[in-house]
Design goal:
- The protein is an alpha/beta fold and 215 residues long.
- It has a single domain, classed as Rossmann fold.
- Helix content is 28%, strand content 29%.
- The protein has a seven-stranded mixed beta sheet with strand order 5-4-3-6-7-8-9.
- α4 links the parallel β3 and β4.
- The protein is globular, with a radius of gyration of 16 Å.
- It binds S-adenosylmethionine.
Length: 215
């Protein structure tokens, strides 16, 4: 086993101790080589359980956060997933390892282009759109699950509309400094659409900048 595989194994053990129990999620984290998603400067720290800087003044999320949000979504093979905030592409790669078909929207054009090429070179089949993901990606809607990887002041209505009946969305909601991880389930009852919400711990994400996020 090479050094990075050993570090990945240790990371998986740490995530498991932190409460990530879904074996498929842990397996996906073990499979994705995080060193490929950070610049040379940060490769030696790729398996620290921390967020790290990436291009465009953005971040690759902390592995625990990626694992937790992925676990909440209970991804099944073949599901259509919309990710808002492609960033480094690491989260998208984890979703692909779980057998999802991933559509990802990134606001920063430099990242959308660079990450699109990276994911392709690593064999991950992800559709990427450069634009404002707070409005979703109507062309491929509805989605089984939606994951928003930037902090939002509210739950964007467009994203709720683009969720399938019975679908799940995970999104950090709060102010610019702190957000509560929020899980939403869309349910139709007697021709009426309802949304059930569950709140989890607090996180600090970069802001979701857009029409239905921060202006
Ligand atoms: N999922 C990413 C990863 O695995 O590296 C982490 C992304 S980073 C925490 C959040 C990303 O959301 C940034 O790349 C940022 O540019 C992007 N973002 C912010 N507002 C956005 C918007 N309205 N639409 C799309 N992307 C947005």
């Amino acid at each position: 086993m090479d050094l990075n595989s050993i570090k990945r194994k240790e990371l998986v053990q740490i995530l498991n101790k932190q409460g990530i129990k879904d074996k498929k999620v842990l397996q996906a984290i073990f499979k994705v080589k995080r060193e490929n998603f950070v610049s040379d400067e940060f490769k030696s720290r790729a398996y620290d359980n921390n967020a790290l800087p990436i291009a465009g003044n953005q971040t690759i999320s902390q592995p625990y956060t990626v694992a937790f949000m992925t676990e909440l979504l209970n991804i099944q093979p073949g599901e259509k997933i919309l990710e808002i905030g492609t960033g480094s592409g690491y989260q998208a790669a984890v979703l692909c390892e779980l057998g999802a078909k991933v559509y990802s929207v990134e606001r920063v054009s430099e990242l959308a282009t660079k990450t699109g090429k990276l994911l392709k070179s690593l064999g991950y089949d992800v559709e990427i759109l450069n634009g404002d993901g707070s409005k979703g990606w109507i062309e491929f809607a509805p989605y089984n699950k939606i994951i928003v990887t930037a902090g939002s002041p509210q739950i964007p209505k467009s994203l709720l509309n683009q969720l399938k009946d019975g679908g799940l969305m995970v999104i950090p909601v709060g102010d610019q400094f702190i957000q509560k991880m929020t899980l939403i389930k869309k349910i139709s009852e007697n021709n009426e659409v309802k949304y059930k919400q569950k709140k989890f711990d607090e996180y600090k994400f970069v802001p979701l900048i857009g029409t239905e996020g921060w202006s």
